[in-house]
Design a protein that fits this description.
alpha/beta, 5 helices
Length: about 140
């Protein structure tokens, strides 16, 4: 099963990517750092260099997959509003657009402030998918 992880060169994304590879998933890691991408390659992750703020890059980095786990984003206690907005809002729009373009039906989103403050995850399902809390959000297997 193929999973694409944005922000794979960051702390959360990298650890998720490594774990999913160990669990037998085909993982495509998307991130900005070629050096961190080289480390991911050593772990068995396919690395694609792309910045979520750049719609054409993300469109090209994505391909058909079962699920996207969106971990990329800007967090921190300070910074310019436009930097947060371009990364977290525009970047997320680009990720959603790439999912739609490639017919990827599942998107798991780690919002930036949430991932650094508390352990909550937002799972976004397509409008046609009924919510089934007894199913695994990625594999659809019964829990």
């Amino acid at each position: 099963m193929k999973v694409i992880i944005t922000g794979a060169t960051g702390f959360v994304g990298r650890n998720l990517a490594e774990r999913f590879v160990k669990d037998g998933f085909h993982v495509v890691g998307v991130g900005r750092s070629p050096a961190a991408g080289d480390v991911l390659l050593e772990q068995g992750v396919v690395f694609r260099k792309a910045d979520i703020r750049d719609a054409p890059q993300i469109l090209e980095a994505f391909s058909a997959a079962h699920c996207v786990i969106h971990c990329a984003g800007k967090s921190g206690p300070w910074g310019r509003y436009r930097d947060f907005y371009h990364t977290n809002v525009i970047g997320t729009r680009n990720v959603v657009a790439a999912c739609r373009h490639h017919n990827i039906e599942k998107l798991i989103f780690f919002p930036r402030p949430v991932s650094t403050i508390q352990a909550k995850v937002v799972i976004i399902f397509p409008r046609t998918t009924p919510f089934q809390n007894d199913r695994h959000p990625i594999t659809d297997e019964a829990n």
